[in-house]
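[Archive record]
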Amino acid sequence: MDAALKAAVIWSDADVIELRISAWDGRFGGVADVYIARGGISKAAAQIAGFPTTISDTRELQFGAFGRDSAGGGARLRFYVQGGAGHTFVEIHIESDYNRSEGADSVSFRTHVEASAVDIFVQELQELEAVVTG
């Protein structure tokens, strides 16, 4: 099965958007429902747009928050280039919302990512923002 990174709007109000971030590398996967401020989706899209620009390019995104003191879960994505040949990867760390008695579930992995797939993800984020605001 192919690797996938997806974001979907679950709920929103005037100030906050709840996103479901899911990632799968063919062997490992995770899902977290995260809260972000309005405008956060387009900010994230702008941060990774055009990746990579150089062989030392690194971009990081964080959706939601980590730890037992925050509402919802968190997703951290680090896009980077490795080696002189310009191979691109994304490191993903996802943590679910804390259940007070059991803690949180989490998964971390890295996977190769094509620059064109990052462009598609940027476009999908921009479309999500348009749906929420429109």
About this structure: DSSP finds two helices and seven strands in the chain. The mean pLDDT is 92. The first helix runs from residue 40 to 48. The CA atoms of residues 63 and 75 lie 5 Å apart.
